[in-house]
Design goal:
Helices cover 64% and strands 0% of the residues. By secondary structure, the chain is an all-alpha fold. It is rod-shaped, with a radius of gyration of 30 Å.
């Protein structure tokens, strides 16, 4: 009882994946009926395989749609939240490089009036 392989699913189109999903759901429904009516043990063990296959098909379809959306939003200024980089909570809240580089008026005046001193080191 071998389910569908994810690498095989990636070669299919979205419409083919949806058709396969429909077939798998119908098969699961017949297996559930067999389970309820007291079917053969072989059919009952197949339920798990079919459920995993359905999960694989759904995972691949979601990955394909997300990949297409990433291409669509690649060069746009604003990107939906679920397509942004996850990072960590602290990294998402960190100041941007532009915000870090900003100086207060007082600090800018200090830097202008008192430049960093350069010392000549005597060679021995």
């Amino acid at each position: 009882m071998v389910g569908v392989k994810a690498h095989e699913l990636r070669t299919k189109t979205k419409s083919a994946l949806l058709a396969q999903l429909k077939d798998l759901k119908n098969e699961l429904q017949t297996l559930r009926i067999a389970q309820f009516t007291g079917g053969a043990p072989a059919k009952l063990t197949k339920i798990g395989v079919v459920r995993k296959s359905i999960a694989r098909v759904l995972t691949v379809t979601n990955q394909l749609t997300k990949a297409k959306l990433r291409e669509q939003y690649a060069n746009s200024k604003f990107v939906p939240i679920d397509l942004r980089a996850k990072l960590t909570r602290a990294m998402r809240r960190r100041l941007t490089p532009a915000q870090l580089a900003k100086k207060t008026v007082k600090q800018a005046k200090k830097d202008a009036h008192y430049p960093k001193r350069v010392y000549a080191v005597k060679a021995v």
